[in-house]
Amino acid sequence: MNMRTHKLIAPVIVTAGIGVWCIVSGITGGIVTNSIVLKLLSFVIPAFIMGGMIYVLIERVKEIRSREEDDLGKY
């Protein structure tokens, strides 16, 4: 494994962990509540969180591949 591959491990693990949390919370929230609105929200909110996490993961992978490690250097 090279150095870039090592830097990809943590973002992928964090995204996968939050993904599992979103799936579990969506399923349990949908099962536990009786309200249609709450069931809908228990699926929509975790879906938005997961979408944001996937977007951030893709951006991080692009940064690592382009070898641009100093994000603060842009500002």
The run of helices and strands is HH
Overall, the morphology is elongated
- Helix and strand content put the structural class at mainly alpha
The whole-angstrom Rg is: 17 Å
Low-confidence stretches: none
Mean pLDDT: 83
Strand tally: 0
What is the terminal separation in angstroms? 32 Å
The total number of structural domains is 1
Oligomer: single chain
Could you provide a short overview of the structure?
With 75 residues, the protein is mainly alpha-helical. The chain is 80% helix and 0% strand. The chain has two helices and no strands.
Tell me about this structure.
With 75 residues, the chain is mainly α. It has one domain. The protein is built from two helices and no strands. The protein has helices at residues 3-32, 36-65. Helix 1 runs antiparallel to helix 2 (36-65). The relative contact order is 0.14. The model has no long low-confidence stretch (mean pLDDT 83).
